[in-house]
Amino acid sequence: MRYLLDTDHLSILQRQTGDSYVNLSRRMAQHPLSDFAISIVTFHEQMLGCHAYTNRARSLSEVVKGYGMMARLVSDFKGLPMIAFDEHAALAYSALELQRLQLAKMDARIAAIALSQQFILLTRNHRDFSKVVGLTIEDWTVSS
Fold first, then answer.
1. Residue 140 · residue 9 · CB < 8 Å
2. What would you measure as the largest C-alpha separation in the chain, in angstroms?
3. Which of 20, 58, 91, 134: disulfide with 141, CB 3.0–4.6 Å?
4. How far apart (Å, rounded) are the C-alpha atoms in residues 33 and 67?
């Protein structure tokens, strides 16, 4: 594995529409699927979104839709290895906290996993992730 998909890149793959999807899927097709992974934090973020939708549901049809979203999410995550937030990532996260970067908690956790595993993070969020020294980031949603 070489690349960790940030939540934004995974969401583009899940939607399967638009220029961003075409660019991303074209770039990914140049690599074996075994080069890619997803973090447990991305799963957590997406599951939180499904959970929030289901909790806000005002009708049974919305509840059905919310649980359907959760089922699709579980299915989506079967295709790529999921990287844990382990002791190495926790150490990297602690180091990021000491730097007092203006970085959201989930982004810092994703960055910590990428750093600890020496992955290239595929993301459109250059504004935040570029603050992390030593983290290699690339945006595959734009034409190269």
1. yes
2. 48
3. 20
4. 28
Distance (Å, rounded) from C-alpha 74 to C-alpha 115? 25
Query: Domains, the chain, ranges and CATH?
Result: 3-48+81-138 (3.40.50.1010)
Q: Which residue has the tokens 């995550």?
A: 77
Do residues 125 and 133 touch, judged by C-beta distance below 8 A? no
Using DSSP's 3-state secondary structure scheme, residue 124 falls into coil
Give this prediction's pTM. Answer: 0.89
Helix (H) or strand (E) holding 34, with range, is none
Whether the Cβ atoms of residue 23 and residue 142 lie closer than 8 Å to each other? yes
**Closest by alpha carbon to 35, among 127, 117, 131, 141?**
117
